[in-house]
Amino acid sequence: MDKVTEELKKGLKLLKQEWQEDLAQYKKKFLNTSLADKKKEGITWHPIQVKKTKIGMGERLLVEIEKLDQSQNSSFHSGKSVAFFSTQDGYASSENRVNGVINQVKKDSMIVTLQADELPDWMDSSRLGVDLLFDEASYREMEFALKKVISPENQRLKELREILIGDRAAAFSDLSRRASEHLNFSQNQACQKIANAKDVAIIHGPPGTGKTTTLIRAISEATDKGLSVLVCAPSNAAVDLLVEKLTDSGISTLRLGHPARVEEKILNQTLDAKTANHESYRDLKKLRKDINQYLKLAKQYKRNFGPEERRQRKLLFDEVGRIREAAKHLEEYISFDIFQKTQVFASTLVGASSHHLRGMTFDVVFIDEAAQGLEAATWIPILKAKKVVFAGDHLQLPPTIKSFEAAKEGLAITLMEKVIQRKPLVAELLQMQYRMKAEIMGFSNEYFYGGKLLAAENTKQHFFEDESILEWIDTAGAGYTDRQEEESLSTFNPEEALFACKYLNELIKRIGISKFKENGWTIGLIAPYSAQVRHLRSLIFESFDFPNLKAFADLITIDTVDGFQGQERDLMLISLTRSNERGEIGFLADERRMNVAITRAKRKLVLIGDSSTLAVNPFFDSLLGYFEEKGGYRSVWEFLVN
Ligand SMILES: Nc1ncnc2c1ncn2[C@@H]1O[C@H](COP(=O)(O)OP(=O)(O)OP(=O)(O)O)[C@@H](O)[C@H]1O
Question: Which residues form the AAA+ ATPase domain (predicted)?
Answer without folding.
Answer: 197-371
